[in-house]
Please model this.
Amino acid sequence: MSNASKKSKLIWKTDYKLPTLGKVKSEWDLQSLFYKNENDPRLEADVVATEIAFQKFAKKYQNGRWTKSSTSVLSALKEYVDMQTLPGSKPIYYFSYRQQLDAKDTIAERTLNKLSDRLTKAGNGILFFPLQLAKLPKTIQKELLSSEKAELYHWFLKDLFDDAKYQLSEPEEKILNLKALTSRGLWVNGTEKILSKKSIKWKGKSMPIHGALMQFEQLPTKERHQMWKAIKVVLEDISEVAENELTALVLDKKTDDELRGYLKPYSATTRAYDSNDKTLEALVSVIEDRGYALSRRFFTIKKKILKRDLTYIDRNESVGNEPKISFETAIEICRDTFYDFNPEYGKYFDEMLTKGHIDVWPKDGKGGGAFCSSGVNQPTMVFLNHNDSLESLRTLAHEMGHAIHSFRSKSQPPLYEGYSTLTAETASTFFESLALERLMSKVDEKELVSILNGMIGDRIGTMIMCIARFKFELEMHETIRREGGMDHQEMSAALAKHFADYTGKAIDTSPEHGLIVFSKPHYRMNFYQYSYSFGEIGSSIMRAKYHADNTYAKKVDHFLSQGGSASVEAIFKSVGIDMTKPETFHLGLDLLEADINRFEALSKSSK
Model:
């Protein structure tokens, strides 16, 4: 029997008196935050208002006379940017959230498809503007980039001018926009819809597949393998559908890349993330070299402590007495963490809890995993599948890290409220680890060993495993581009091979463990996964600076408040971190290695 079964309920005592928390809502309050239902007249009014505004803008500027001088460009640009505050996106968010809550909500699915089509067509009506803006005469470009009056738009314009070489003609761009739903969106939604309706039989009851996927690795060994056996049946059942979906997505991206002139499968992603290929490639090289070695060492130590063979689904096995953490306790730990770091963050967390911004529990039809979502003039929403575990505490703190990032980024003008995925995953992992460190400061040595094991395992999962996932995704894209396809058995085996590369001989990995590719949305997001590794390293360094000098909290707030107002590298440099250098990635691994050393020493002393 695994030590995973020896879970005691954690009783938490706060460090200091916190404000009284109102009644917590564990479900999204979409009626208060968005619309009463699909018949709410405000919904159609928001779409129509956006369509009319786009039409007026197109009528005013379609003739192109605005491109003749920097003054006229600046005037038109201000109007264009102001349209970001239009309410057309609100219905899209609303119906997307309804779909996440219930895959059987056909009204939401169909209405979302219709509205997406309407708003895409409306957006195509003003597509001429950014295309013409990107290709302004070089003389006007230089005037704008040196003008104090245009200072607010400098980063936006520079990025747009740099992007011009990847842009197509207006008719071609319109076609790509219109085909996005059928070539990509419906494929992804289709697989997720099928999966969300699946369930397994567990102890005589039906359990949603997404709840099982979130829970099975925390179970005692025997039960873990029993539940994995049931999960495998579901994943194998959808594998042929997912094979076609993934192949279609890869080939669709191949077409887009060839049309735009991107030479590498991941180049469009690094540009979209306000970064570059060189930074990504340096990260992958360091992680493959030194990071994989650290990961293998950790799993070797862990196997020696547990004194038994481990398979890939056992890699996160607890060591010692891992506490059971209820949602109420997870709230208390996060409140302590956020209020202590910055009281403004704690108040924001309280508001999200009491006003229906967080959906907590897994249920039939609900989507899997966890996420945070936000937009201009839109409430920030957090989606969970909580199961009273250490993992779920990490997830809550992680997603609230995203939420706090969104909250602080709203101090930027709407143009820059959005932020790079790379800075997003820095914010989330920063607060996740901060919450775990607070937990570790309150437990005895045996629990400390267990929590440290979980924290290191999680950091390896984000810092190291996500590069293994990236390398699998690159192999999948390159194989399908070269050979025209890849069957589901090959996909599963290839992912398992990359898992084995980072876990080493201490973990027994077989092709069945690669079946997870068919349920993880990350493999549909075009090389998104390296952002976790990048963010984990960046946040580890930020956290070390904060512990060395608590006034660094002001730098962290500055980082969170930058939104998308500069390149990722520039935002990091503003808080004293140079993410362009391999040495920085090594520094992140130094911190991981120190934790592994501490874990090894504590595990010996606590015997």
